[in-house]
Every structure is written in C-alpha cells, then in structure tokens.
Write a structure and sequence with these properties.
Elements lengths: L2 H22 L7 H26 L3 H5 L1
Helix pairs in contact: 1-2
C-alpha cells in the first residue's frame, strides 16, 4: 500500500468526521455558513477520492498526488 493511499484514507476519514460535525453540531448564526461548510466538505471528500486514485492511474504518483 502506498503512502498516498494512506494519506487519502486519513483525508477521507477526516472528511466524513467533519461531515458528521456539520450535520449535527455546526449551528452558525448565519445560515449561509452552513452552505459554505457543506460545499467545502464535499470538495474535501472528492479530492480524497482522487488522491486515492492518483497512485493507481499515474506514471509519476508522487508528482500527481503531491
């Protein structure tokens, strides 16, 4: 297992944890912040998936994942 796969797993786990916090614990005064948090979390999860895939589909995984 490559080190980038481990980093992607940790990043994905962090994304899921932050998503749970956003769904249950994040109560901002301004409702627009909820949308910003949701969008940021979605991007974090998508980038974690691409980070996990980078070493498998690239000739230079350290360059691509980095």
């Amino acid at each position: 297992m490559s080190s980038w796969t481990r980093v992607a797993g940790a990043s994905g786990a962090l994304s899921v944890g932050l998503g749970a916090y956003g769904a249950h614990g994040f109560k901002p005064e301004n409702k627009a912040y909820e949308k910003v948090f949701e969008t940021g979390n979605k991007y974090h999860l998508i980038h974690s998936v691409f980070l996990a895939a980078a070493p498998h589909f690239s000739r230079k995984p350290n360059l691509t994942a980095g």
